[in-house]
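>> received
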Amino acid sequence: MGSVAALRFMAWLHRSGGRRASSLLVRPIARYFYWRYPASTASTLDYLRTLRRWSGGAVPAHEPEQRDGHRHVLSFTINTYDRLVAWGGGFRSFHFDHRGSEHLFHYAGNGRGGIILGAHLGSFDMPRILAAQYGVPLNILMFTERAEMITSFFERIDPASMMRVLRLDPSSAQTGLAIKARVERGEFVAILADRIPPGSSEQIEIVDFLGRPARFALSPFLLACTLGCPLLTSMCVRTGDGRYEAVVELLTDGERVPRRDRRPRARALLERYVATLEEYCRRWPYQWFNFYDYWEPGGGGQLSGAGGQESGARGGGDSPEANRSF
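>> returned
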């Protein structure tokens, strides 16, 4: 996560030298990571080739090659740089467009909590922005043992923030109980639903994603069916230099589903989430950031030309993104 001082420094550098000067560091950093982690190089090309096959050759418009893989890693590096600047106090230097946030305001105004599903696509900082600007109580689920420290970190940067961090313990039922408690008291819980934590005991579903079978956790969808709470998606993509667009969409307004019907209902909601993610990958192909062997073995395999290196453990591996908090 880095220190508060480091983030403040990034914001100062951004203010003093301007975006163009301070961002000169971004390209060499991206090149370093691209060549330092060959498994990530293989995985990004595999993803882009999978996307091209799924889209019928439309996206990308040409057969992906090394320069496309580098562009993908560069996009991730720019995103990370922007997050550092924003968290360091330089938020006003960015322009955000957002659509669908009225759903959050409606539920928050009525004291009704819910679950927000994001992805490792673009930036997931939009919920934090909404929470800070509009007083929406928000909890971010993270796979980290330092949840209390990170919450304190956010409060030091922004004392008015209503964002809290929940620790995701993949081997414990306490996570589900913590989510339930917060939703029932009218708060929102944000989850990145396109990745399964290492060592997780999650209920898993195999769903076709970009035409190849992939593993997704069913738990967030089952929990929404059990609680009868609203379930929303939140995606935020970079649309230009210092410009972002965030879209909140409603998957279900929430209704308690009988036990016998929960799994098929949850599966249907999961498929809608995956379809939403596919559409964003089609529109913004270089902003989905999972740099490891994502798809099921034997389910289409690594596509020809992707390099063939082993990518390490599923859900992480030796990649520039493996240690991201969420």
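>> DSSP finds ten helices and nine strands in the chain.
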